[in-house]
Every structure is written in C-alpha cells, then in structure tokens.
Amino acid sequence: MTNDSQLTMSLNRQDLDQPASLDVCSTSSSELIERFVSDATVGFNFQSIEQASEAALQCRRCGLCETRTHVVFSRGNSDSKVMIIGEGPGQREDETGLPFVGKAGQLLDKILASVNIDQGQDVYICNVVKCRPPQNRVPVREEADACRPFLDAQIDLIMPKLVLLAGATAVQAVLQVKDPISRLRGKWFPFRNGAKVMPIFHPSYLLRNESREVGSPKWLMWQDIKEVRRALDALN
Ligand code: SF4
Q1: Considering only CA atoms, which residue is closest to atom 2 of ligand 1?
Q2: Taking the CA atoms of the chain, what radius of gyration do you get in angstroms?
Q3: Least confident among 18-32, 97-111, 118-132
Q4: How far is the CA of 8 from the centre of ligand 1 (A)?
Q5: 2 in a domain, yes or no?
Q6: What are 105-134's pLDDT values in tens digits?
Q7: Number of structural domains, the chain?
Q8: 12 in Cβ contact with 37 (< 8 Å)
C-alpha cells in the first residue's frame, strides 16, 4: 500500500524552485503533499535520528559551517508526537548546541507549560538550519535548501503527529508558501506521514509585542497553544 511518505517521495518537485504565493486554505491535501516534496533528500538515507545528527555535526554543505561554534540539531524527546520547527540558532543556541534556549526559547517553554506540555518530554524541537547565520540574519534560500535533508530526516524518522512551524522562515521552508503568518497561524493543514501542521508566531516576535489584550499576538498564541493541547488530547 502507498502511504503518504511513499507518495511524497515519488512525486516531482518541479514547482518548488521558488516559494509560491499559494492560497493554502483553498489548496487540496494532495496538492499540499506535492509541495512538501524535497529533492534535497536524494542521496541521503539516514537510518536513525542519531545517524542524521552525527552527519549534521560534520556537515559543510553551506557557508554557515564557517562561522558556527556548534551545530544545533535538536532538543526534546525523539518519541514525542509534537515537533516544533523554528528558523535557526541564535547566539545562545550556537554557544550551547541546543535550539530555543535563549529568551525566545524560555518563553516557548513557558507557553508549552501553560497547557501542560513538557518541553523535555512532550516535544521535539529543531530548526530549518542547524548552524547560526551571522548576526542572526534570516537564512537564505540556498542555506535552507542545503540543510533540508536533515530537516526531512527529522520529520520522517520522528514521525510527529502535530508539527508547529514557528515563524515565517519555517512556514516558507516547509509549506513552500509566502502567505503572511498572520493569515496562516492557528490553522491546521495536512502534512506528510498522516500528520498535520500549524503555523504559529515565533516566540521572538512575542517578545517584541508585550500586549496581552484580545487580538494581540500573545493572545492569539494563547488561542493557538490551547488548540494544540486539544489536538494532542484527541490523539491520546
Ligand atoms: S546549516 Fe545545515 S547545511 Fe549548512 S553547514 Fe550547517 S548543517 Fe550543514
């Protein structure tokens, strides 16, 4: 029988050279699956998450290897049902080798804890690129593409049921769309391996927007994380 993963691998990625301005909300499941295909995985066949991590630690596929201190692969539980994908390591992450451990990461942990999701047990956290871009700039398309085999391996080996895309870079890299995150956040979309994916605000954006009033980014994040809790409960 053909599952979503096999279907994904058998499809062609001709239309993914540039992120499209796609109306995700009106796009069918099969169209979205087609957009998740990554030809970057050709030649990579990681058998375990440990093998992928070891390969990343040695990786020199893009220029970010020149300025990194540590490769930042992941933190959390590789058996969890929830995966959170962010943009890339910042200074603190580069120093420690762990994703989301600076101020934004601490806020993310608090947000998760507010709905009893434990950052060590209940989630697996990683980024689009595993090495820090200089001055914390946004990774360029070539860097995200070069690092894509590792992200694909993480998705396919962890096989999360719920995937949260934190911020515009993760949304563009994974969904291949340019739609503003303010329009996509809080909505579930079909994903490969039978999972579903939801864009959310990046916690660093929340740090710059202190208001908790109804309709503010923090309030919207609170709605989104409650929905994640509901979806997780429905799986259990
Ligand atoms: S960012 Fe990714 S592709 Fe680039 S050197 Fe680091 S691990 Fe390799």
Answers
A1: 147
A2: 17
A3: 18-32
A4: 23
A5: no
A6: 999 999 999 999 999 999 999 999 999 999
A7: 1
A8: yes
Pocket test of ligand 1: the residue of 130, 140, 145, 152 to mutate, having most ligand atoms within 8 Å of its CB, is 130
Q: Give residue 79 CA to ligand 1 midpoint distance, Å.
A: 24
pLDDT band at 22 (very low <50, low <70, confident <90, very high): very low
pLDDT single digits (tens) 158-212? 999 999 999 999 999 999 998 999 999 999 999 998 999 999 999 999 999 989 9
- Are 48 and 128 contacting, i.e. CB atoms less than 8 angstroms apart? no
Flag whether 42 is in a domain.
no
Given CA atoms 138, 61, 131, 54 in this order, what sign does their dihedral have?
positive
Please give all residues whose beta carbon lies within 6 A of any atom in ligand 1, as ranges. Answer: 56, 59-62, 64-65, 71, 129-131, 143, 146-147
- CATH of residue 229's domain is 3.40.470.10
* Among the listed residues 110, 114, 113, 49, the one whose alpha carbon sits nearest the alpha carbon of residue 79: 49
